Amino acid sequence: MSENRQLQLRVALLGVVTVILQITLVSQLRIAGGIADLVPLVVLAVGLLCGALSGAVFGFAVGFFLDVALFHTLGISSLLLLTIGYVAGRVRDARDPEGAFVPLFGAAAATLAWVLGYAIIQFLLDVEAPVSGVILRQTLVTMLLNMLLALPVYALVRSWLVPALPADPRRRRRRATTTSLSPLQRAR
Predict the structure, then answer these.
(1) How far is residue 157's CA from residue 73's CA, in Å, rounded to a whole number?
(2) Which of 3, 60, 114, 186 pairs with 137 at a CA distance of 20 to 30 A?
(3) Rounded to an integer, what distance in angstroms lies between the CA atom of residue 65 and that of residue 20?
(4) What share of the chain in percent tops pLDDT 90?
(5) How far is the C-alpha of 104 from the C-alpha of 150, rounded, in Å?
């Protein structure tokens, strides 16, 4: 099986398992008034590991599956998760995603974009929903919970995808040379 096909199968299975876990288990656990959300964390991790195009496609597919599974308005989750996956992939292209703080700050930004984006789109679609100060507290608690889960989720996604990822040319090590580094220096 080619590396590309193996990566596609691993990413597809990751998306299905993530949505099923989120719906059946994680969304039922309320901690300090907030609910952790694995979906934007996994989309962020795939974007950081696979790039902008793969992150965007994965985000769209997971969002569509989430909307269908929860009988929500089709396209809202897809649009938001597509954006999260694409931006995470662009961060990968611009910076080194292996830094310890990238998943943490990425989780905070992705969670905030996910919650606020969903609220704004629901408001624009004229969906009746109660608005109060409790929502702000729930958003902050959800963001903190996701930041706590960011590193373990990133590590799990990375360990699942790394065997199928192609070698990144930016990370190639330079071959050791026995000659001098400068052509102007004479060998001794």
Answers:
(1) 28
(2) 60
(3) 10
(4) 47
(5) 6
| Amino acid at residue number 94 | A
The answer to whether 21 and 76 are in contact (CB under 8 A) is: no
Compute the distance between CA of residue 63 and CA of residue 76 in angstroms, rounded to an integer. Answer: 8
SS3 178: coil
Q: Spell out the domains of the chain, with CATH numbers in brackets.
A: 3-163 (1.10.1760.20)
Q: Tell me the backbone φ, ψ of residue 168, rounded to 5 degrees.
A: -85, 120
- Mean pLDDT taken over the chain: 85
| pLDDT single digits (tens) 67-85 | 999 988 888 999 999 999 9
pTM: 0.83
For the chain, how many residues are written? 188
> For residue 114, how far is the Cα from the chain centroid?
11
Q: Report how far apart, in Å, the C-alpha atoms of 164 and of each of 8, 59, 106 are.
A: 9, 19, 23
